[in-house]
Write a structure and sequence with these properties.
By secondary structure, the chain is mainly alpha-helical. It has one domain. It has 10 helices and no strands. Helix 4 packs parallel to helix 8. The longest helix is centred in the C-terminal third of the chain and has 26 residues. Its main location: membrane. It comes from Mariniflexile fucanivorans. One of its GO terms (cellular component) is plasma membrane.
């Protein structure tokens, strides 16, 4: 049963990195249930980087680098703060705060969608806050997906630009996180890398199936899908 759960989670990881956004929380929940909260972050990280490589190759031409440059500095700071407090913060408190932020953000986005507002947030405060929160949450629990999804939705990015920009952003930040997991938290080891190597085929299968599905989804329906699944993920986190 544990192997089935792990393979399913890694398959979902491939789907997620191909552009089926909003399911990252389900992956984190499954792996945390099998391995424990902190250990699962180190097991997941190399698989994230592997899937990121596929994503940046596949969606490279769609990446919007000016958004990456806006978010990256604050994300780096968020990661460093996450390294510092990650061993001490209460897992339950972290998940409750994240769930409230995610669900609140989704409600705001639904409101903006229904108003058909074309207004795009341009303040540095908005991008820096989103970047810091994404960096902190990705370090502590690999949970930055909902934060970045909300940001890119607010920017009203088309489907492929959304996926390509997120792919490069998280490839860079996940590689940046890796030394901290190896040398400080010690959650990445030879044993976890051996496990990762066994699971790689499931990542590849999920990625290419997801890439095919993404082609069939319109921009409008894609935005709705991301909002709905992100909201569900926030609710799962709140009551888990």
């Amino acid at each position: 049963m544990q192997w089935t759960a792990i393979c399913f989670a890694v398959f979902l990881l491939g789907l997620s990195k191909s552009g089926i956004k909003g399911i990252g929380i389900i992956i984190v929940v499954i792996l945390a249930f099998v391995f424990g909260e902190k250990t699962s972050t180190g097991i997941l990280l190399p698989l994230l980087i592997f899937a990121d490589i596929f994503a940046v190759i596949y969606y490279n031409k769609h990446a919007q680098w000016h958004y990456i440059k806006k978010l990256l500095p604050a994300m780096v700071i968020g990661v460093l703060v996450g390294v510092w407090v990650g061993n001490d913060i209460s897992e339950a408190l972290f998940k409750r705060i994240m769930a409230i932020i995610i669900i609140g953000s989704v409600f705001i986005m639904f409101y903006m969608e229904n108003r058909k507002s074309a207004t795009i947030p341009t303040s540095k405060w908005f991008s820096n806050s989103a970047g810091f929160l994404a960096g902190f949450t990705t370090m502590v629990g690999n949970l930055a997906g909902p934060v970045s999804d909300i940001y890119f939705l607010a920017m009203r990015m088309p489907k492929n630009e959304f996926i390509g920009t997120a792919a490069w952003l998280f490839f860079i930040i996940n590689v940046f996180k890796l030394p901290f997991h190896i040398f400080i938290w010690e959650t990445v080891s030879f044993e976890t890398l051996v496990l990762n190597s066994v699971l790689i085929p499931m990542v590849i299968l999920g990625f290419f199936l997801g890439a095919y599905i993404v082609k069939l989804i319109s921009n409008v329906n894609y935005r709705r899908f991301v909002l709905i699944v992100t909201a569900l993920g926030g609710i799962i986190m709140l009551f888990r």
